Amino acid sequence: MSSLTSTSTTTKATAPGTTGTGRLPRPLKGMTWLVWRQHRAAFWTILGVSALAVACIVFQRSQSQVDGYTHISTGLRLIPILLGVFLGAPLFAGDLENGTAKLVVTQSVSRTRWLTTKLALTALVVVVSTVALSVAFGWWWSLYKSEVTASEWLSESTFNNTGPVPVALALLSVFGGVAIGVVLRRTLMAMVVTLGFTVVVQLVWSHFLLSLGNVVTRTTSRASAETAVETLPTGAHRMDGSTPYLTGDGKLLGWGTCADAQTEQARELCMQKADVVGWSVDYLPISQMNGMQWFGASILLALTAAITVFLFFWGRKRLA
Q1: What pTM was computed for the model?
Q2: Fewest beta carbons less than 10 Å away: which of 41, 84, 101, 111?
Q3: 3-state secondary structure of 190
Q4: Residue 192's closest CA among 90, 49, 313?
Q5: CA distances to 86, 111, 113, 114 from 108, in Å
Q6: What is the pLDDT of residues 236-280, one digit of tens each?
């Protein structure tokens, strides 16, 4: 009887797919499992909401609906801010504030390994969710790309929600929030400061967005602004104030030229004296969109890498 019991126990303990305790093995082990367990609510929420958003986009596109395009694009633009505030800022600030960090560093795990695991797993969740959203939204926008007006492809609702840009913006916001949390060591304060940080990032990004492209100039020999604009390719974004007068010797004159003329006849005479022969139009073609997005994303990722380096230098001594 004891032999039978021993054999049964041994069989149970060594059954395929089980551990020595009879439990199924975890796909994640060690520090990775610990970090996932600690932040699983936030990670699953991010992945779940992203999946629902992708499903909504797929449904809208399959129905050829444009009603929700503006609302969904606005919501997607808020994702980097929300991730920075609610995921990045508390990631280490919570541990530092409640004393968990001191407990971790007293174990056999080094600060560097703890920091690496947390950042890597968080980055993985952020990348998976934002890539899925970017691909889905880009697929939806492709329906209207051939009909896009000059302002739409460079609007934040399209440019910032497709390609690599949303991924890079989200990573910068999250890692910036992490750095703020590590320095301030208080969760609520870190979240407030991170909110300001992510908003500033969005504003600065929007301000320099046009500078990511190479401006193209087109001239016309006919003195008509309408003619000059009509010669632009489909989807071209005309730069503000970029249609000055063009003189016979190739010089450009500003909008104020002959503005003091009281009559149309006086204006025409002034134009002739100034040797105005046409217009010069500066614009960004839609063909540059891909290159501009990758160039901008590389800048954002470089900033994220710099923050990561700071975190490792700071965290090796003060992350406890």
Answers
A1: 0.81
A2: 41
A3: helix
A4: 90
A5: 29, 10, 10, 11
A6: 787 776 567 777 776 777 666 777 777 878 877 887 787 777 777
